[in-house]
């Protein structure tokens, strides 16, 4: 495999990545390569927590009251919802529709 084929293969792989943390790590490696003559191994060995911290505080969703949620808050809400399902703290679609209809009477 020559250098151009390798570049194309890397581009193909990057296009398949859907994880922001992975893309940030790739960007850091490439930026380090072009911004300094230092070897990139220390960057690759950088703790995952540091890379994750860049995305953990980014707003990724909002709750039903419009409160912004970062990744940690969002995952907490998902866990709470799963616990509600497990503990049968749910309402059927039919009962919900009946309740909504009663609001208009």
Key features of this structure:
single chain, 105 residues, mainly alpha, two-stranded antiparallel sheet, 6 helices, 7% strand
Largest sheet: 2 strands, antiparallel
SSE order, one letter for each helix or strand: HHHHEEHH
Tertiary shape: elongated
Span between N and C termini?
72 Å
The low-pLDDT segments are: none
Mean pLDDT: 82
Structure explained in plain terms:
With 105 residues, the protein is mainly alpha-helical. It has helices at 3-16, 20-35, 41-44, 48-56, 71-86, 93-103; strands at residues 59-62, 68-70. The protein has a two-stranded antiparallel ribbon. Helix 2 (20-35) packs across helix 4 (48-56). The longest helix is centred in the first third of the chain and has 16 residues, at 20-35. It is elongated, with a radius of gyration of 23 Å.
Give the helix/strand layout.
Layout (H helix, E strand, L loop, with lengths): L2 H14 L3 H16 L5 H4 L3 H9 L2 E4 L5 E3 H16 L6 H11 L2
Antiparallel strand pairs: 1-2
Describe the structure concisely.
The chain has 105 residues and is mostly helical.
């Amino acid at each position: 495999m020559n250098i151009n084929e390798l570049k194309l293969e890397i581009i193909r792989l990057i296009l398949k990545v859907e994880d922001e943390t992975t893309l940030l790590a790739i960007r850091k490696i490439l930026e380090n390569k072009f911004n300094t003559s230092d070897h990139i191994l220390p960057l690759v060995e950088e703790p995952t927590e540091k890379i994750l911290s860049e995305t953990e505080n980014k707003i990724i969703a909002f709750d039903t009251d419009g409160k912004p949620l970062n990744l940690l808050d969002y995952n907490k809400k998902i866990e709470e919802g799963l616990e509600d399902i497990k503990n049968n703290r749910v309402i059927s679609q039919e009962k919900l529709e009946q309740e909504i209809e009663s609001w208009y009477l």
